[in-house]
Write a structure and sequence with these properties.
The chain is mostly beta strands and 410 residues long. The protein contains 5 helices and 28 strands.
Length: 410
């Protein structure tokens, strides 16, 4: 039985849970959003979160094991640049993105063609941003992809592009942070939702996004210094942060990320601390899952609570699902199975209600990052090689070659 099917059964108890309580012209939304989060509210909610450990949860008692099938790994494409996100449309079109982290990549968003080549998407103009030209004032960040972190197909005929607009994970460029909707039928940008400084404040890094099946709401993880879940009203083009500063969105400072048997740290000795990162939504849109990258705890909450105005109550209702692994990407499959990428052991795992079981492990999966399900049920996964980048290896090239793989059921 899938997670979605189990959630539909109603409020049975989970024995391992811990309860804590088409237009021709783009539409632009550049309003200054109302600040709706006060960190002290979430410090209070955080206290409640820790105080009720052991209380009875409201989610299912057990989650039946998904089919015990595993996968074989096939290389789908290779790139001369560092890839992070991948998306696949219902028609089988595949898209990837390349953030400007350690190089000024010549393309931000591309469609992977049948022969493995890349085509700028939706066009060259949106991919024309170059850091040097922008510094000279020749480009406006609102009109181009600046530092794209993820791409997602919504199943409603659109590809969405999430641009935190923070090249090199540095300063957020004013007017650059945005969520862009591209109509797949026309290959044209149809909507641009721009985020103000109350959502994409300095130090933030909008990381990944999921869309409610009703088509009206999106949920974004902020993995930067803030750590939060951003809720976006797609029709109004407005957004607000939730769980800002809440323990569930913050890096776990007791966790050391270990790669190749060594603690992952920068050449100057700084550790690896990343807040809320991977995100997944149940098939019915009622439950949101997420996890800080620096951490091993999977969390969830009812989406109705995230969309409410009761900030303190929202913080109290976050649930600890269980202990998984150091995780980057999360994917809820069409069958309602939750997959988790595991950078520490170059694997992808399947959440089985009380544990994460490895379904594919391969040395070529150097930092499995994002996933996308294809029409035939196979799963695309990027290997972004973060541990091999110039952030952690002084001898690494600025342009880091990476690969896209496909997980096929064995």
């Amino acid at each position: 039985m899938s997670l979605s099917e189990l959630e539909a059964r109603g409020p049975e108890e989970h024995e391992n849970g811990i309860h804590s309580g088409a237009e021709a012209q783009p539409q632009r939304s550049s309003r200054r959003f109302r600040w709706m989060i006060e960190r002290r509210s979430f410090l209070a909610a955080g206290a409640a979160f820790g105080a009720v450990v052991g209380s009875r949860p409201t989610f299912p008692q057990s989650q039946a094991l998904a089919p015990a099938s595993s996968f074989e790994l096939e290389e789908a494409a290779s790139f001369p640049h560092q890839v992070t996100g991948v998306a696949c449309s219902p028609e089988g079109r595949v898209f990837v993105n390349f953030p400007r982290w350690t190089e000024d990549a010549p393309v931000s968003v591309a469609e992977v063609m049948k022969d493995g080549s890349l085509k700028s998407y939706p066009d060259d103009a949106w991919n024309a941003w170059r850091n040097a030209q922008a510094a000279a004032g020749a480009m406006k960040p609102a009109d181009h992809f600046v530092c794209v972190q993820s791409v997602v197909c919504d199943g409603r005929g659109n590809l969405w592009v999430l641009d935190p607009a923070a090249p090199g994970l540095d300063k957020v460029l004013p007017g650059g942070a945005k969520l862009v909707r591209i109509e797949l039928a026309t290959n044209k940008v149809a909507q641009v939702i721009e985020f103000g400084e109350d959502v994409a404040l300095q130090g933030s890094y909008l990381n990944d996004v999921r869309f409610h099946p009703d088509g009206r709401t999106a949920f974004i993880t902020d993995s930067g210094a803030r750590g939060s879940i951003v809720v976006v009203d797609l029709a109004k083009g407005t957004a607000h942060s939730r769980l800002d500063g809440h323990p569930s969105t913050q890096p776990d400072r007791t966790v050391e990320v270990t790669i190749d048997g060594k603690k992952l740290q920068r050449p100057d000795g700084r550790g690896f601390m990343v807040a809320s990162d991977g995100i997944a939504l149940s098939r019915d849109g009622k439950t949101l899952y997420w996890q800080p990258l620096t951490g091993r705890t999977l969390y969830r909450i009812g989406t109705d609570l995230l969309m409410s105005d009761d900030i303190e109550e929202t913080g109290k209702k976050v649930e600890k699902v269980g202990t998984s692994c150091v995780a980057d990407g999360l994917l809820m499959s069409r069958a309602g199975h939750l997959y988790i990428t595991s950078p520490e052991d170059s694997s992808v795992k399947l959440w089985e209600g009380d544990r994460a079981r490895t379904v594919v492990s391969d040395a070529r999966l150097r930092w499995p990052d994002s996933m996308a399900e294809a029409p035939d049920g196979s799963i695309y996964v990027t290997a972004s090689r973060i541990q091999d980048s110039a952030w952690f290896d002084r001898d690494a090239p600025a342009a880091l070659p990476t690969r896209l793989f496909r997980m096929v059921r064995s």
